Amino acid sequence: MIESQRHSYHLVDPSPWPISGSLGALATTVGGVMYMHSFQGGATLLSLGLVFLLYTMFVWWRDVLRESTLEGHHTKVVQLGLRYGFLLFIVSEVMFFFALFWASSHSSLAPMVEIGVIWPQKGLGF
């Protein structure tokens, strides 16, 4: 660890992987839309975007593992922060799906007057 560091946190260096992942996601999205609408080159762009995303995930996690194991930047405080962050992510996903199923149950058990007091509403094709 760096001797001049006066705290136990790890300040990350600038990384190209967030913008790389964003460009890969953009290429995947545009390629998927092009493919679904039968545009020429849509499948190629979709494939390139997915490969770019997978490559970005691989090298980003490679860098994180290198920082933690070889360089020793992940102190106990940093590891605790990573655990709390992951736990909060899981909790937020549970709350999101709970809200989604709550809204679905509410709409099916007590449909609104605006949709004709039936569920699913007319015209959805169910």
Q: What are the segments in which pLDDT stays under 50 over at least 5 consecutive residues?
A: none
Secondary-structure element pattern, one letter each: HHH
Helix content: 55-70%
Radius of gyration: 23 Å
Shape call: flat
Strand content: under 5%
**Main beta sheet:** none
Global mean pLDDT: 89
Class from helix and strand fractions: mainly alpha
Straight-line N-to-C gap: 61 Å
The overall strand count is 0
How many helices? The count is: 3
3D architecture notes:
- By secondary structure, the chain is mainly alpha-helical.
- The protein is 66% helix and 0% strand.
- The chain is built from three helices and no strands.
- Helix 1 packs antiparallel against helix 2.
- The longest helix is centred in the C-terminal third of the chain and has 34 residues, at 76-109.
- The protein is flat, with a radius of gyration of 23 Å.
- The mean pLDDT is 89.
Break the fold down into its secondary structure elements and pairings.
Elements: H1 17-36, H2 42-70, H3 76-109
Helix pairs in contact: 1-2
Please provide a brief summary of the model:
With 126 residues, the protein is mostly helical. It is 66% helix and 0% strand.
